[in-house]
Design goal:
By secondary structure, this protein is an alpha+beta fold. The protein has five helices and 13 strands. It has two domains: about 90 residues, Gyrase A, domain 2, CATH 3.30.1360.20; about 110 residues, Roll (2,3-Dihydroxybiphenyl 1,2-Dioxygenase, domain 1), CATH 3.10.180.
Length: about 220
């Protein structure tokens, strides 16, 4: 099995236009139209077949989103870095640019004193499956919808039950915080930065802005 890489190792690879978030290595290629996007998807598909390593591709009218993740290793590996370089080359040859500025991933988190007791219900309700080797998370087997994980909390104190974990590239954090604060929010807790910041809206509803920094191996 391939070895998963840490966020720092991925950053050290020097990929331009890619962001490492919770569900893999991602980029967005602006195409300006459907035909150019389809041609890029065809080229990436051929390269992926040749490498026997396949990305997730989301073709839209004006862009193509690419996600790289080694499912057998449950993380980002050297194979993903190699394929990212190939995607970057193919995009450049087509005169297309990569942009990680708008790339993000979203996880749903449910605060609970009894993750083991409620996880089976949410897996069944959503049609999700447990993440292998992890006892506090369920995932969409198709990868189309956000995972749900269960955060340990007390049983009695008033608490918000659901919150979002929004993962962005570290370079995007300050702009995202500034925009949230300008929109009426506030930073509640930055003691775990640069791993994550806790923000709240004007009613006190909290969510976390997360990055790969100060974390271990991907996945």
């Amino acid at each position: 099995m391939a070895t998963t890489l840490t966020g720092q190792q991925i950053a050290d690879a020097g990929l331009v236009g890619w962001a490492f978030v919770s569900d893999g290595l991602r980029t967005r290629v602006a195409t300006g139209g459907f035909a150019a996007g389809l041609a890029l998807v065809d080229a990436v598909g051929a390269a992926a077949e040749a490498a026997d390593h396949h990305p997730d591709l989301d073709l839209r009218w004006g862009h193509v989103d690419v996600r790289l993740w080694s499912h057998d290793a449950d993380g980002v590996t050297e194979r993903d870095l190699d394929l990212a370089r190939t995607v970057s080359r193919l995009a450049a040859e087509a005169g297309l640019g990569l942009d990680a500025g708008g790339v993000q991933s979203v996880d749903l988190a449910l605060d609970t004193p009894d993750a083991a007791g409620i996880l089976p219900f949410w897996g069944a309700f959503l049609g999700y499956e447990p993440r292998p080797g992890v006892d506090d998370e369920v995932r969409d087997p198709t990868g189309a919808h956000p995972p749900v994980w269960f955060q340990q909390s007390g049983a009695d104190e008033p608490r918000q039950r659901w919150h979002l974990d929004v993962w962005v590239d570290p370079s995007q954090v300050q702009a995202r915080i500034d925009a949230a604060v300008a929109a009426g929010g506030r930073v509640v807790d930055d003691s775990a930065a640069p791993s994550f910041w806790v923000l709240a809206d004007v009613e006190g509803n909290r969510s976390c802005l997360c990055t790969w920094q100060d974390r271990g191996a991907s996945g």
